[in-house]
TrEMBL record:
One of its GO terms (molecular function) is NAD binding. Transmembrane segments: none annotated. It comes from the Bacteria. Keywords: NAD, NADP, Oxidoreductase. The lineage of its organism: Bacteria, Pseudomonadati, Pseudomonadota, Betaproteobacteria, Burkholderiales. Pfam families: 2-Hacid_dh, 2-Hacid_dh_C. Residues 113-286 form the D-isomer specific 2-hydroxyacid dehydrogenase NAD-binding domain. One of its GO terms (cellular component) is cytosol. This is Hydroxyacid dehydrogenase.
Length: 318
């Protein structure tokens, strides 16, 4: 009888089509989320666990990493890894993988959906019709703004940022971007100053990584530079935008619209954003299509299997 490799699963991967079952089929899974006293559970059951399965939401902090004396690999479901303590992992010689590329197109598609929905007031129009107000009141919803031919600014020109920028070609948009450094392999204009990019742009899409280095990168000055007709879209991480500054700018008419898939304190969303007619709000669904979630699941499992077969990961975090 073959003994299954022992792994720890930080939390249920309920957003994935079949990940929980597939993990249970192939591995001896310790389900950490089912234990109320996490520290005690790790103390009692941590020995012999060589791999951890987690996600960007659940993460893997230094306490978890250091509580597992035999840990060698962390395989994360999702592209973001700011909630995984990479330094603690490296200090222990623990390998870390994520699932890049497979979700790029769906997240970029959603960014464009948010952009168009914000510009054309689709959420407001939907509420207007559902409330039975169409034909019952004088006039219609306020006019929106055209998307085609406008100026698109992208914050963070990684895989997803580039996919968003490429879609701008089909809308005859001029595209510029802000990055930690200029890229020589893209045809778009580079703005070293984020404020200058916001001042220039009609639409500003946040596609940068999360974590302490980018927290409140989009601050009051950037938001107000985008201006009363500007539209900001965030499909990255909520804390990249100073949410209080964003809310204040919308309330004071200093920003035209915020179209958001992520928030600073998820799942909490400020009432001011919920009540505003100048917002489009989604529950963090950038990768939430069957095709993409299954591809993320497959790649996470491929990383896990690769570690147990060869000691290497398919998509390691460098």
């Amino acid at each position: 009888m073959t003994t299954k490799p022992r792994i720890l699963q930080v939390g249920s991967l309920s957003g994935s089509p079949s990940a929980n079952q597939r993990l249970a089929n192939d591995y001896d899974v310790f389900e950490l989320w089912k234990h109320g006293d996490r520290k005690a559970a790790l103390t009692d059951h941590g020995k012999g666990i060589t791999a951890v399965v987690t996600s960007a939401t659940m993460g893997a902090d230094a306490d978890l990493i250091n509580a597992l004396p035999d840990l060698k690999a962390i395989c994360s479901w999702g592209v973001g890894y700011e909630t995984i303590d990479i330094q603690a992992a490296r200090a222990r010689g623990v390998l870390v993988s994520n699932t890049p590329d497979v979700l790029t197109d769906c997240v970029a598609d959603l960014a464009w959906g948010l952009m168009i929905a914000g510009a054309r007031r689709m959420s407001l129009g939907d509420r207007f019709v559902r409330a039975g107000r169409w034909g019952q009141v004088h006039g219609n919803i306020p006019l929106g703004t055209r998307v085609s031919g406008k100026k698109l600014g992208v914050i963070g020109l990684g895989r997803i940022g580039q996919a968003i920028a490429r879609r701008g070609d089909g809308f005859d948009m001029e595209v510029r971007y802000h990055n930690r450094r200029a890229r020589s392999d893209v045809p778009y204009g580079y703005e070293a100053s984020l404020i200058d990019l916001a001042t220039w742009a009609d639409f500003l899409v946040v596609a940068t990584v999360g974590g302490p280095e980018t927290r409140h990168l989009v601050n009051q000055q950037v938001i107000e530079a985008l201006g009363p007709k500007g539209i900001i879209v965030n499909i990255a991480r909520g804390p990249v935008i100073d949410e209080q500054a964003l809310t204040t700018a919308l309330e004071n008419g200093k920003l035209g619209c915020a179209a958001l898939d992520v928030f600073e304190y998820e799942p909490k969303v400020p009432e001011a954003l919920i009540d505003s007619d100048n917002t489009v709000l989604l529950p963090h669904i950038g990768s939430a299509t069957y095709e993409t979630r299954l591809a993320m699941e497959d790649l996470m499992l491929e990383n896990l299997a690769s570690y147990f077969q060869s000691g290497k990961l398919v998509t390691p975090v460098e």
